[in-house]
Amino acid sequence: MGSYRALATDGSCSKCPLHSYxxxxxxxxxxxxxxxxxxxxxxxxxxxxPCKMGSYRALATDGSCSKCPLHSYx
Length: 74
Prior knowledge:
It is built from no helices and eight strands. It has 74 residues and is an all-beta fold.
């Protein structure tokens, strides 16, 4: 774990990019850590980017960062 293989034709697995992880063997991508995101257009090999000030990303399944609720901050 901690690695992925984006395409079945790739010869070997690659280490997950900075601020991301894989949780199972045979992963085809790596999920971003909480507080980080990767645009849908970014390649799987690109490191995850931190959410902007005033936004957050709580779950790996969230697609992008969300604005912080009123009276909270990140």
